[in-house]
# Entry
Amino acid sequence: MAEMAIKKKRPKNLDLMTIRLPLPGILSILHRISGAVIFLLLPVLLWLLQSSLASPETFATFKSFVGNPLVKIVLLGLIWLYMHHFCAGIRYLLLDLHKGVELAPARLSSKIVFVVSIALTLIIGAKVLW
Amino acid sequence: MVNRIVVGAHYGLKDWIIQRATAIIMALYTVLFLAVVGAVGPDTFEAWRGIFAGGFMKFMTFLFFISLFYHAWIGVRDIWMDYAKPDGLRLILMIATAAVLVGYAGWAVQILWRM
# Structure
């Protein structure tokens, strides 16, 4: 109960415009945003998979669609969102196991997530899209 | 801080575990899929379709999709719980989310087994 009384007096700042989010915080909100965007695009992605697999004709339509430079940019962005969600997710699984929960390792691991996810995105984009 | 008294109920432990179990399944599938695509290098329709033709990849892909949709359910539901405050709106959004995800699961089965 004493602990509860202390907690209530702690100052709060929830003004999004004045909060300077540290890197693990940016990683966290991007984890949520990337998940939400992938969820919203699920029908498009399922449609793409369907056209790529249904028949040679739909495969040709699929190829010309993903051959569009604008679509390629969007897909590259999506690959990055997926890779960010993937890498940040692995970091969270490690945090669940109490690996890297201290401030310095947590900051370092969030940097690693950004570097690795962007590198993987570029490699996959180079192999698959271009 | 929400001053709630935790008694008896599970308080989301099941969802917490499922979120992580489905994440691990999807992460393993992602590595498997990239390895297979890297090895096959599917340039033609036949080669691309061949990846999903075998029973093993079909099963793994199906498992990936079910994990994805369950994972998305928990994640998106958490988003509605955080931002959609009116009860009616939250309920509608949750039902709509569950409905589309169940539909997607049927769609994914159809894509995999009717190709």
